[in-house]
Amino acid sequence: MSGFFRDSAALRTSGDAPESPQMRVPLTAVEPDGPARGGIVVLHESRTFSEPLLDLMRSLAMEGWVAVAPHLFHREPAPSDVEVFGDALFADFDATFDWLIARGIYADCVGVLGFDDAGTAALLVATTRPVGAAVSVAARGIVEPLSEDAPALVHAAPDLKAPWLGLYGEDDPSTPPDQVERLRDATAKSDVAGLVVSYAGLAHRADEPPQVPDGRDDDPGAQAIVDAQRRIFDWFDSHLR
């Protein structure tokens, strides 16, 4: 099957408890037209998938990746202002990872791409799970942990087990440049490839590209988002083999 489709993945459980709908995470996935070269787990903190995010998943599939996004809010009734981070988010990642493995994808050919707090999770996944590569966009919790159960990223980064790319905007108040610089230094202490890239303004979001007038390819925001997207694709292309 090629193109977008919906599915669900079983959450890991202990014991012999019977499966129920609450023990599965809904997924949105898109497959390449030909054989898959690997899979990308897309962690995105939104109840709805924006068209730019779907375009990104579609582009990943065109490059040969199975792009699959777990619905991270599936435990929370709508409307809800609950932030998604912690054990539930990692459980959803594990279920999605298992779903890819069951489809014949090797573990070292699985990448993870996360945005915001889910970008924080993507880095932490790369310290504890057998993934091949990770990319975080606007990952928070750099010097102060997002929760009591999670380390600050400056403390986690030296323990990276998979190549990690971090993309940040210099005007993002939740990730000040001085904190990003500290993360850059911490990442350099790991035993794997790591790269932290900062962009002027906020034009670093592959899921929220800047609005620019038609024909204005020279717009700095447009150029930044093109560069950010290229880096994401190049990172997975280089490290998922």
TrEMBL record:
Keywords: Hydrolase. PANTHER family: ALPHA_BETA-HYDROLASES SUPERFAMILY PROTEIN, CARBOXYMETHYLENEBUTENOLIDASE-RELATED. It comes from the Bacteria. GO terms for molecular function: hydrolase activity. InterPro entries: AB_hydrolase_fold, Dienelactn_hydro, Dienelactone_hydrolase-like. Residues 204-219 have a biased composition (Basic and acidic residues). Residues 1-24, 202-221 are annotated as: Disordered. Pfam families: DLH. The lineage of its organism: Bacteria, Bacillati, Actinomycetota, Actinomycetes, Mycobacteriales. The keyword Ligase does not apply. Residues 29-239 form the Dienelactone hydrolase domain. This is Dienelactone hydrolase family protein.
